[in-house]
Amino acid sequence: MSEVDFISLVHKSTKRDYIARVLERPKEEVAELAKKFAYDYWDGDRTTGYGGYNYDGRWEKVARAMVEHYGIKPGDKILDVGCGKGFLLFDFTKVVPGVEVTGIDISEYAIEHGKEEVRDRMQVCDAAELPFEDNSFDLVISINALHNLYVQDFYKAMKEIERVGKGAKYICVEAYRNEAEKVNLMYWQLTCEMFCTPAEWDWWFKHTGYTGDASFIYFE
To answer: Quick one: which of 37, 144, 187, 215 could link to 107 by a disulfide (CB 3.0–4.6 Å)?
Structure first.
C-alpha cells in the first residue's frame, strides 16, 4: 500500500470549531440523526452533517489529480464506493469525457438528490456486497466512507473493492496521530465507527489483502 494524498486541499479548506460541535446540541442526538444519512446529514443543520451539500466544483481538482496519477482515459470504468451525491463522479466526466462512472451509496436520500447528470449511474447499495462482476473497474475509489462501517462490514467491503477492481484503487479514511487529533476527531465526527491510527489502518489494509493506495484525513 502506498500513501497518496489527493484530498488535503479539499479537507483543509473547511474551518472547524471542535468545541462548538459538542456544545451546540447533545452529541448523541445529532449523531443519531446523522447516521440515518438522510436530509439532516446532507442538507440539514451544520450540527448534524454538511449543513447543505451542494455542487460547487471543488472536487474537480481531485478528479484531475487522480486522472493524471492513474492514467485514466476515455472508456475506462470508475467506481466510487460511498459516492454521496455524485459530485466527484460528475467531475470525472468533465475531466475525461467518455469515462464510464458508477457510484454506490447507502444513502437513498443522497442518490435521489444526486447530481442530475450522473444520477442514473448511481445506486443504493451496501459496500459490503457490491453487485458487480470480478475485475469490472479500472479504478475503484472510496473517500470518507469506509470508516463509517463496523469492523466486520469494513472487512467485507475491502474484500469487495479488491474483487471488483482490476486496476488502481484508492481509499481515504479518517485517522489520528496523537491525542489532540484523536479528541478533535471524536468531537467532530458524527458517523465514524472505526477510530484508527495510520499504523492500525495499514494493519487492516494488509489483513484484507488490499493492494491499492490510501490516504488519511487528520483533524488538526
So the answer is: 37
